[in-house]
Amino acid sequence: MEKETEHFEHAVPTKYWHALPDGRVQCDVCPRFCKLHEGQRGLCFVRGRQHDKIVLTTYGRSSGYCIDPIEKKPLNHFLPGTPILSFGTAGCNLACKFCQNWDISKSREWDRLNDQADPTTIALAAKKLGCRSVAFTYNDPVIFMEYAIDVAQACREQGVSAVAVTAGYITPEPRREFYQYMDAANVDLKGFTEEFYWKICGGHLQPVLETLEYLKHETKVWFEVTTLLIPGQNDSDAEIDAMTQWAMSHLGPDVPWHFTAFHPDWKMMDLPRTPEATLVRAREIAIKNGLRYVYTGNVHDERGGSTYCHQCGTKVIGRDWYVMTQWQLTADGRCGQCDTPLPGVFEARPGDWGAKRVPIRLSSLRP
Predict the structure, then answer these.
(1) CATH code: domain of residue 159
(2) Before 141, cis peptide (omega within 30)?
(3) How far, in Å, CA of 197 to CA of 205, rounded?
(4) What is the layout of strands, in order, in the sheet containing 12-13?
(5) pLDDT per residue as tens digits for the range 34-62
(6) Number of domains in the chain
(7) What value does the CA radius of gyration of the chain take, rounded to a whole number of Å?
């Protein structure tokens, strides 16, 4: 946790914390359980102690907004082809050495938070811009859950969906509240050993597995899973086999899984990029273990990016990077060849946003 003390301006109160006998206050949002003296921040940077309570210091402040293809989150079975308004704040409750958004998630500079917006403004902007959903991404929304929940509620009033892009590192009570307001999620399962989580990410594996099981068995949230494969760290056949066997037995065959390529970044600049062959091999192992919808990402692999009917093998959604090349679904989301339902959230027609990425300043949209 941050050792210096400070006064937090514009902070909002939170409720997941309790006082300790030694005078410190413990934040209970995530399994880090940061224990804070007055004026200290937790490791996440955005939650801190003020006046004997835990407050959120980034409410209404963002590191930037961008319209992305929803497949970039990545979500392949949730409103394919549609644009999604994406934003994050600052900080993170994990310390992944390979973080590919480290300039945001590890930011300690308030000038990263260069755009401000209340929840209603974001929801109205999304609707005005033609976005079918809003994503909390770039850094983990569980650490700014109060802001994310308020935005999600405002979005529902406008008919806009809320999407959480998260590492799933959250405790049970906040988890229940947070996911009440989410329509979809992509959960990053970073590896499948406790050693990897502790040494490389500064966290623990079990809470993430519990989040995945919670989403599957206790919510109606549509979710997909991403694993970034890092050469020599979490990409062995044995680990991928164990991970996908666990997925099959605990989550079932229909949760889409994305294996994505690592590129050298932040504190892991000494490792090579993930070869495409590693992703293809991981996909084959997962399919062999019974998973029906397995994808490769961060590489040009049309086969690994496309969706196939598990019953007859028809390519029902073709993708070349983020560009849709084929659509063989019926209006109610069934295979156009054999009428087998495709799990997910689909509309009668796909979106046509394509691969565009458009940065947005919300201040320019205000009257």
Answers:
(1) 3.20.20.70
(2) no
(3) 6
(4) 12-13, 53-56, 47-50
(5) 999 999 999 999 999 999 999 999 999 88
(6) 2
(7) 20
Distances from the Cα of 3 to the Cα of 31, 139, 155, 201, angstroms: 19, 22, 37, 21
| Under 8 Å between Cβ of 257 and 287 | no
- 350 is a domain residue: yes
In a shared domain, residues 42 and 122: no
Of 189, 318, 210, 202, the closest CA to residue 257 belongs to: 189
Element (H, E) at 224: strand 222-229
Claim to verify: residue 244 and residue 179 sit in the same structural domain = yes
Query: Of 114-128, 144-158, 212-226, 299-313, where does mean pLDDT reach its minimum?
Result: 114-128
DSSP classification of residue 95: -
CA 331 to chain CA centroid, Å, is 28
Q: CA–CA separation, 310 vs 152, rounded Å?
A: 33
DSSP letter at 70 equals G
* Statement: the pTM of the whole predicted model exceeds 0.90: yes
The answer to whether residues 174 and 290 belong to one domain is yes
Using an 8 Å Cβ cutoff, are 140 and 47 in contact? no
